[in-house]
């Protein structure tokens, strides 16, 4: 017999050997010896009160053998001679579109401007150490897209938008730990992601798909309302029938190309702000109610904060406990910061984007001349401003949190995880007022919600500008662009995803739509 039960385990109990067996036996009023195995189905930590509780959902096997391994299988077919579907971009959306094509019996032909994960590493090093931005290979572009050297948090709010579990099982199939199927806030970590991405590439190639790295799509032709061909950076033209456009929100050249060709685009609301970095022990002591180091059974603490300020949301975004701030620029002359963490989340710093909602209809009136690209131009201006204020390299402008809120330049800055380095700058006066003033009020309110958060020991680092796409590439119910039959805008760049999992789910959906009638 197998029974599913919920268990509440205190922090002290968590350290006890076989505690799940003991507690399950008590809960079910059976002998411990009758329990033949326990499978953890879900685990979360409730640290809201001083008594920290681990909440478990477990399957208790009573006089029955516990299955030893879980096999997640996907029905991949040999597609080497099948009809092609062209996929532009090999981020989570493009990767999962390609895998789904193979399951459905179609051949994915992937075109990716960046390099494979191994070669991409050198460009990541160059931006961190030498401040050199390769415009085709960086934290956003290359095999696995922005999802490879990312944090790998797999939390998504889009529960209704597809089968999250299926994406998780596929990640496990490709080498991610099974723990992601259990944790309430699953996380892979930047050190483990490249291998998972590489395994996905190997599956696609093994079943007959094609992947062309260092291949940038620069143009396409449309005849009688239908996409006919795409042009590559080297001038080569490829005939196409169905194209999944999964180029992400940093592929500005693609937005400009569509705009130039008078193909409908829409401005979209998004968010921008700064990244704040605290010593991890401060966040631990607030969240775990402790004065010294956190208990070794507890992971580096995280937080999620939100506050409405003058009719716009100010909120934490992509919080990375035990992580690093990274330079996520995709072009020369801009500074963009983002965050990531290794699987153990054992770095000394906690960083998070703190961003302000930018309403495309109400906040961009000075940029109206740019039409649907007004948000993109606003985003670019902020990134240029950060570049100038940081000293015209990848060094980022920064300020102590208290100085930022109280409006004075910092004499010196706190230590940081940001490898290209920080330069003291008056971000409080440099940021556009609608962002800067809301951030300052937001930080004050966060300090009241989390006592100790508002501290001179934290740095504010500029700018966090790539939270989501400022442009939407419209699509109809068949997921095709309403003006270009055969073109399927997909993932975060089109405005249909926000994060790894939702982009992957959208990739699957677009593949399913693209094969119809082929
Ligand atoms: P992308 O991942 O942006 O992929 C687009 C791909 O298209 C790129 O590889 C690019 O090179 C390619 N491309 C662009 N233009 C062209 C062209 N013209 N021709 C050919 N190829 C082209 N999300 C989370 O859910 N959890 C996290 O913890 C997390 N952490 C992050 C940390 C960092 C540092 C960054 C940068 C992002 C993070 N994200 C995180 C966001 C996440 O990575 C994105 O939401 C996700 O990757 C979007 O997937 P996508 O496939 O739509 O686009």
From TrEMBL:
Q: Which SUPFAM superfamilies match?
A: FAD/NAD(P)-binding domain (SSF51905)
Domain named FAD-dependent protein C-terminal: which ranges? 269-467
User: Highest taxon of the source?
Assistant: Bacteria
Query: Where are its TM segments located?
Result: none
Domain FAD/NAD(P)-binding, first and last residues per copy: 85-253
One family from Pfam that matches here is: Pyr_redox_2
What the entry lists under InterPro entries is as follows: FAD-binding_protein (IPR028348), FAD-depend_C (IPR049516), FAD/NAD-bd_sf (IPR036188), FAD/NAD-binding_dom (IPR023753)
Q: Which residues form a coiled coil?
A: none
What is the designated name of this protein? FAD-dependent oxidoreductase
Which organism is this entry from? Answer: Gaetbulibacter aquiaggeris
Q: What is the lineage of its organism?
A: Bacteria, Pseudomonadati, Bacteroidota, Flavobacteriia, Flavobacteriales
């Amino acid at each position: 017999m197998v029974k599913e039960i919920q268990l509440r385990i205190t922090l002290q109990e968590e350290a006890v050997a076989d505690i799940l067996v003991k507690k399950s036996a008590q809960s079910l009023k059976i002998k411990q010896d009758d329990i033949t195995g326990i499978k953890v189905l879900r685990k979360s930590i409730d640290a809201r009160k001083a008594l920290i509780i681990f909440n478990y959902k477990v399957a208790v096997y009573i006089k029955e053998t516990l299955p030893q391994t879980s096999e997640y299988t996907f029905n991949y077919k040999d597609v080497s001679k099948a009809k092609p579907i062209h996929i532009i971009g090999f981020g989570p959306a493009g990767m999962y579109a390609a895998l789904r094509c193979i399951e459905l019996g179609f051949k994915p032909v992937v075109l990716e401007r960046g390099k494979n994960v191994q070669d991409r590493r050198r460009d990541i090093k160059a931006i961190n150490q030498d401040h050199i931005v390769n415009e085709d290979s960086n934290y956003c572009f290359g095999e696995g897209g922005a999802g490879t050297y990312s944090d790998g948090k797999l939390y998504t709010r889009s529960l209704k938008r597809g089968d999250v579990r299926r994406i998780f099982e596929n990640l496990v199939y490709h080498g991610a730990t099974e723990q992601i199927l259990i944790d309430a806030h699953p996380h892979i970590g930047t050190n483990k992601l490249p291998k998972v991405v590489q395994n996905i590439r190997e599956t696609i190639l093994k079943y007959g798909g094609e992947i062309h790295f260092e291949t940038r799509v620069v143009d396409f032709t449309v005849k009688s309302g239908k996409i006919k061909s795409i042009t590559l950076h080297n001038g080569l033209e490829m005939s196409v029938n169905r194209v999944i456009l999964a180029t992400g929100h940093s592929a500005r050249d693609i937005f400009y190309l569509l705009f130039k060709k008078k193909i409908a685009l829409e401005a979209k609301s998004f968010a921008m702000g700064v990244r704040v970095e605290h010593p991890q022990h401060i966040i631990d002591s607030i969240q775990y109610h402790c004065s010294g180091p956190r208990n070794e059974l507890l992971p580096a603490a995280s937080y999620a904060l939100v506050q409405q300020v003058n009719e716009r949301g100010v909120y934490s975004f992509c919080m990375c406990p035990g992580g690093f701030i990274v330079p996520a620029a995709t072009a020369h002359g801009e500074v963009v910061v983002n965050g990531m963490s290794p699987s153990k989340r054992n770095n000394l710093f906690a960083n998070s984007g703190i961003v302000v909602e930018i309403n495309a209809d109400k906040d961009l009136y000075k940029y109206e001349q740019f039409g649907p690209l007004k948000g993109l131009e606003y985003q670019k201006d902020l990134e240029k401003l950060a570049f100038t204020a940081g000293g015209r390299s990848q060094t980022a402008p920064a300020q102590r949190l208290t100085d930022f809120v109280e409006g004075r330049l910092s004499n010196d800055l706190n230590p940081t995880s940001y490898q290209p380095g920080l330069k003291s700058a008056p971000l409080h006066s440099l940021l556009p007022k609608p962002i800067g003033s809301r951030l300052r009020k937001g930080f004050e309110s966060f300090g009241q919600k989390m006592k100790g958060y508002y501290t001179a020991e934290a740095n504010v680092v500029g700018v966090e500008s790539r939270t989501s796409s400022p442009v939407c590439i419209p699509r109809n119910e068949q997921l095709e662009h309403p003006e270009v039959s055969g073109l399927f805008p997909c993932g975060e760049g089109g405005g249909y995803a926000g994060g790894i999992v939702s982009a992957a789910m959208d990739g699957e959906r677009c593949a399913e739509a693209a094969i119809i009638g082929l």
